[in-house]
Specification:
Blueprint (H helix, E strand, L loop, with lengths): L1 E6 L2 E4 L4 E9 L6 E7 L6 E7 L5 E3 L7 E6 L4 E6 L8 E8 L12 E2 L3 E6 L1
Parallel strand pairs: 2-11
Antiparallel strand pairs: 1-3, 3-8, 4-5, 4-9, 5-6, 7-8, 9-10, 9-11
């Protein structure tokens, strides 16, 4: 089992920045991919970014490319999502996820999920 605990959500004005963290514990050795997803109000959950645990290679949704950066802190078994130039359409509940395969964009490929953290961007 893997436990994920997110932190860092909040409210910010458009153009601002927020930093989300996700701390992983438990059977870390089984993780191949870490991902961030979000669920905007009234919409389905969508892929935001992913990081391959073996070499920190990252993937991004087109909607966040160039604005969001995902990274990891190996010593703390933590992944970070740095969100810059935030827009109102980035408003959502953000979820951290961990998977045991290398697939990254489908939420059905992740076995473990955090509780979610709210990000609100006002115009």
């Amino acid at each position: 089992q893997v436990q994920l605990v997110e932190s860092g959500g909040g409210s910010v004005q458009a153009g601002g920045s927020l930093r989300l963290s996700c701390a992983a514990s438990g059977s870390i050795f089984s993780i191949r991919i870490m991902g961030w997803f979000r669920r905007p109000p009234g919409k389905k959950r969508e892929f935001v970014a992913a990081l391959r645990w073996s070499d920190a290679y990252t993937y991004y949704a087109d909607s966040v490319k160039g604005r969001f950066t995902m990274s990891r802190d190996n010593a703390k078994n933590t992944v970070i999502l740095q969100m810059n130039s935030l827009k109102p359409e980035d408003t959502a509940v953000y979820y951290c996820a961990a998977g045991r395969s290398y697939s990254y964009s489908g939420d059905d490929t992740y076995e473990y999920w955090g509780q979610g953290t709210q990000v609100t961007v006002s115009s």
